[in-house]
Amino acid sequence: MKKILLRAATQQDAESIFAVHQNSVENLCNADYGPEQIAMWLDGRSPETYRAAIAAGTLWLAYTDTLQGFVEIDGHEISKLFVRGDAAGQGIGARLLSEALQHIQHAGHAKAYLEATLTAERFYAAFGFRKIGEGRFSRGNSPVSIEIIKMERAFQET
Length: 158
Description:
158 residues, 30% strand, alpha+beta
């Protein structure tokens, strides 16, 4: 296993981030969601999707010789965490999650929140997130949606 490096994303990374997002959804989520759901999920996304978070400094990358995954936060929410399909299970998601949690806690939030896919629910539970609800996600006016699990994790008082 190659060493995993983390760094803040730059605007030049937007194309690669988009490619990882697409690869992750298409290769890791197809056991839990059908082709129409995956198409809806990716519909309308482009490298532009990530530029505001990059500019805000709230998107981090994990890479070896190439980009392997990314995480984005929005306040106390982990809004995106995706790892390339062929990089899953190698600790990359754990490193990205840890990075995001550090930033959220450092900003003074008492809890971290996220909306997990069915695919990722067990992953987040292993890091102390607990289910607080269920919901559905859809892009635009699409009649197609995916089930999500609303989860949160409190930070320990120090």
